[in-house]
Amino acid sequence: MLVVPGQAQAAGSVHLAKIWYNSPGSDNRSNTSLNGEWVQITNSTSKAASLKGWTLTDASRHKYTFGTFTLKAHKSVKVRTGKGRNTATNLYQQRAAYVWNNDKDTATLRRASGAVQDKCGYNSTRYDYKNC
Predict the structure, then answer these.
(1) Residue 126 maps to which CATH number?
(2) Is residue 61 part of a domain?
(3) Is residue 109 part of a domain?
(4) pLDDT (tens place) for every residue of the chain, 132 residues total
(5) Domain for residue 9, yes or no?
(6) How far from each other are the two terminal CA atoms of the chain, in whole angstroms?
(7) Residue 46 CB: number of other CB atoms within 10 A?
(8) Pairing of strands 14-20, 129-131
(9) What domain range is 103 assigned to?
(10) How far is residue 31's CA from residue 119's CA, in Å, rounded to a whole number?
């Protein structure tokens, strides 16, 4: 019997889980500070999801496009603003400036087709993060 492994595919429950929009300390544009702001994306399904070609944008239309990346079942990945080497748990936008406003913004996760997968917004300086 021939067994062919299933191809990773985008699932309906790949969603925005958390936005850490105000990095710890002063906003000094250091790479450490830039990487202190991130968006966590979670796959709450039992199947891996290919995010190739998906995008993550803010209200000002800063856009991060996912390269070849598979988010495993029941796992999460943080998309960090600054520079770094991509891993299974951290992806880096390779930016030298902040993306997420400290007072209000909206994250939009889109499939490669352009269809909106999920949105999460915040309007507060009371906290440094938003659970989506």
Answers:
(1) 2.60.40.1260
(2) yes
(3) yes
(4) 333 333 334 445 899 999 999 999 989 999 999 999 999 999 999 999 999 999 999 999 999 999 999 999 999 999 999 999 999 999 999 999 999 999 999 999 999 999 999 999 999 888 899 999
(5) no
(6) 44
(7) 9
(8) antiparallel
(9) 14-131
(10) 26
